[in-house]
Amino acid sequence: MQFSTHIPSQLIDQFGRHVDYIRLSITDRCDFRCQYCMAEEMTFLPRDEVLSLEECSRLVKLFVRMGVTKVRITGGEPLVRKNAMWLFEEIGHLPGLQECLLTTNGSQLDKYSLTLKAAGVNRINISLDSLDEERFRKITRVGELPKVLSGIEHAIQAGFSNIKLNTVLMRGINDDEAFDLVNFAIQKHIDISFIEEMPLGEVNHDRESSCVSNNETLAQLKSKFSLTPSMHKTGGPARYWQVNGEKTRIGFISPHSHNFCESCNRVRITCKGELFLCLGQEHKIDLMPLLRAHPKDDMPLVEAILQGMRIKPKGHDFDLQRAAPAVIRFMSHTGG
């Protein structure tokens, strides 16, 4: 592979923001069909239209050389990708990479927690939207709550100290579980973040009526828990509150009620090799053709990535009152 002294050690976008965080989806497939993420009947990409794990590794290594210090592997459900552990072992201990992270639905953690820990994964985010088994199945359409709870326990036993639950509250579906989910996090000595539902992809419910504002959730939680604003930062968009007297922090990711774009430090790469510069916009650079046309020369990729920095938009444009979603692609395509 050819190396060049012209590869920058930092990525700076047109608004002066330092991009040091990539989220890489390694598959659009998932063993769940969560209502806010996928349609019930999905058509998945053919294998040759998905980045190989070797291509994923090459991209991560290049971005790290360009100053990225934090990489999150997402999906779909990344742990259903065949031989996914190879990728974590390839990138988990890269010089210059400070954090190798995973977002998962938890269904495979009973099998892979120990391997992930040994590979160098620092933190795990686990989606959990209900503690009621029947409701959990309704939200995920096919998921089994006991398997996810077992996965959380295996991750704790494997020694992961930075586990965070991610919860999407939907009005009339699970918005009455905020207290229970926080209590569960406190019991397990882990963190939890509430994420406002994002208008990505066509789903079979009205997002304007189902979306629960994090302002509303925070007000509810303050009525039961003693909370203090926290300066804790993870490099992402969450704003945290500390549960007084407990290890648990409560995060809020609020693309609607609190736009977080002014400090955006991240880009996303889909499993098709599309470099999306913003979750809520269609600005993108196609990296897969360059990967395959130049297997031993990184400079075309470097130039494309730098072009991406020049077109990265100032912010997303989410509006739940639109008749159509802000972005047609599903969250599972972009990467969670």
How many H/I helical runs? 11
Cα separation of the termini: 31 Å
Proportion of strand residues: 15-25%
What percent of the residues sit in helical stretches (DSSP H or I)?
A: 25-40%
Shape: globular
- SS elements, strand count: 12
Strands in their spatial order, largest beta sheet:
7-8-9-6-5-4-3-2-1-10-11-12
| Overall average pLDDT | 88
What is the ordering of alpha helices and beta strands? EHEHEHEHHEHEHHEEEEEEHHH
In short:
The chain has about 325 residues and is α/β, with parallel strands linked by helices.
How does this model look, in words?
The chain is α/β, with parallel strands linked by helices and 336 residues long. Helix content is 30%, strand content 16%. It has helices at residues 53-65, 84-91, 109-119, 133-140, 145-157, 178-188, 207-210, 214-222, 288-293, 299-311, 331-334, and strands at residues 21-25, 70-74, 99-104, 123-127, 163-167, 191-195, 227-229, 239-243, 249-253, 266-269, 274-276, 284-286. A 12-stranded mixed beta sheet has the order 7-8-9-6-5-4-3-2-1-10-11-12. A hairpin with a 7-residue loop joins strand 11 (274-276) and strand 12. Helix 2 (84-91) packs parallel to helix 3. It is globular and about 55 Å long. It starts with 20 loop residues before the first strand and ends with a helix. Mean pLDDT is 88; it is low at 1-5 and 318-327.
Write the layout of secondary structure elements.
Elements: E1 21-25, H1 53-65, E2 70-74, H2 84-91, E3 99-104, H3 109-119, E4 123-127, H4 133-140, H5 145-157, E5 163-167, H6 178-188, E6 191-195, H7 207-210, H8 214-222, E7 227-229, E8 239-243, E9 249-253, E10 266-269, E11 274-276, E12 284-286, H9 288-293, H10 299-311, H11 331-334
Helix pairs in contact: 1-2, 2-3, 3-5
